[in-house]
Amino acid sequence: MARGSLALRIGGAAALAVAVLVLAPLVAVLWRAGGAGWPTPADWSALRFTVLQAALSALFSALLAIPVARALARRRFPGRDALILLMGAPFILPVIAAIAGLLAIFGRNGLVNRALEAVGSGPIDIFGLHGVLLAHVFFNLPLAVRLLLDGWRAIPGERLRLAAQLDLPPATVFRLIEWPMLRARIPGILAVVFAICLSSFAVVLILGGGPAATTIELAIYQAFTFDFDLGKAATLAALQLVIVTFAAAAALSLSRSEGPGAGLDRMVVFAPVSPLLRLQDAAVLIATTVFVALPILMLLTQGAGSLTDMPPVIWTAALISVGVALASAALSVLLGLALALPRRNGIESIGMMTHAASALVLGTGLFLLLRPFTYPGNHVLAITAVVNAASALPFVLRSLSPDLRAAEADWGRLADSLNLTGWSRLRCLILPRLRRPLGFAAGLAAALSMGDLGVIALFPPPDAATLPLQIYRLMGAYRMETAAAASLLLVALSFGIFALFDRIGRHADA
Amino acid sequence: MLTLENLTLRQGDFGMTADWSLPAGARLALIGPSGAGKSTLLAAISGFLAPASGRVLWRGEDLAPLPPGKRPVAMLFQDGNLFPHLSVARNVGLGLRPDLRLTDEDRGAVTNALSRVGLTGLEDRRPAQLSGGQQSRAALARVLVMQRPLLLLDEPFSALGPALRREMLDLVGEVAEEAGATLIMVTHDPEDARRMAGLTAVVAEGRAEAPVATGALFADPPESLRSYLG
Fold first, then answer.
1. Engineering a disulfide at A399: which of A219, A384, A441, B149 sits with its beta carbon 3.0 to 4.6 angstroms away?
2. CATH number for the A37-300 domain, one of 1.10.3720.10, 3.30.870.10, 1.10.10.60, 3.90.76.10?
């Protein structure tokens, strides 16, 4: 069919561009290193720790997300929308700021240890595997909740209405309606969190470290900054590429599903009235709210005082960051849509592959590729935008693809019979059905780019800087009060830009 | 004239055959047990299922190269005939222009079609805001503006009550009459066949029999139909 082949050509071109973007820098690094050596025992140990912490992080995040998403899906209460927005918070919270918030609670002089001291108990230590897991669950539990909530939302209201009409007990509703949805979505969510945690860098840098808790990403950073040993970095990067590509491929084959079936978008509230279940849902939601909100509140109390007397350079950096974030989001969403439209797992898995190449390796490779032609530092903002767009691509795809497939499964036949092809199909079927995930994806991509401190820290530009880089510099100069205030501004901008896009998307089906 | 020429259809383990013609302007009911292949036959005519062998011809022309949207076919499915995110007027407008770039004339045609099916004033409603009967009417209005010579009904009114279903079938009959369209409808109810269709074809045991006059068929049903009627 003509429609299929056009979407396929565009999707194929996008896949090729992404593959070149990921592979060319890796080749450049390998070539520069003159061929990479075989991994050392220390590298294998880093690999083992990487997989272990990522698997545990994914498991805890996904399992804990099920009761939270279920409670959110079946309850209507004042502040519910705000709570859903809050669930998006940790994922887009700039990592340095988030860790500062977690340390203020669980750190040596944090809330928990002060409370323990008051009752005469010994201090707890956040550093090590459990600290890394705590931070990863903080970042990824809310993401899993939102992805699962989309799953509950995609269950046709007619089906839930039927269950309510038949007075099916909650256990039966779970088995007949919710479990099939979970079985379709959980493997994908596990794989996404696993992949995120495989490449987690800042968390492990601060909370991990040492021979017992070093990931491949951290080892790459150390190879670059301490040894400038590009060969070692390239070996590690190849290792990283292999395990994450494997994880992404597994995720795609695990999460194939028939789609939830057609419904007429009726809003159905299905709240079991049992007081015990009500209590359980309330407890789950309150505990989650405290866990997610408290670190952010701690940040607020620490940084608010100095907001007004920040130097002008901070505001300039904020403007630059907004520009980079918008460019990155636009690029990422367009690429994601192009990759998702053909509905081919092969093409989508190339998009998922960008997560495998660490931002550090991508940035270095691009640096090496560009140096013969121009001084890359002059273009580091553009490089940052492109690398950020590539890093966000898996999340954009994960958000768009299931709803796109559902739209085609439910309405494709009707669209075919009406000869809706090409641009008309995109405008009348795809885009209206995808507004919610499109808004979410654009917000996510922009906010992730906003808080990113990766490539730009390795090759700081001579004149301009993004906000995270400025904060990094302020911290380096021990101007902690200003750094906290600038962090607060960064958090506000990240949240603001995410909330704006997400609201546009969610508003669409009001 | 619609011709099914040595047609064999396959879907997984299921297979069926048909080899007959239907004159233009005729009204045909397909009747038979569930799973006998009535919907499969419609899928082949509308282009959602390619024949395993044989051809589907319309006015002597093989339909095989045409995708569903390019065939001379307007079809009503069992459900999901309206996009839930588009207004009634836009759902009908899709039948005129898939890109929805409607001229004033097109908009007039949409308004006329909606008043023809009794939905005047409901242009801006979403499908979920309509009753089941009104949803059927809206889908029928789209069939009206499409002006395709072949009209296929895959039990689109099976969820409606008997009175409402008869009303909708009568409306379909009028619409087909006005357009001079050839009508093929799947049904479970002999009453619908008698009411609507001059011809009936029994679909059973992997075969779609050639159409015969409805009155004569029910006066002296063959064995396959007798066991279905019980």
1. A441
2. 1.10.3720.10
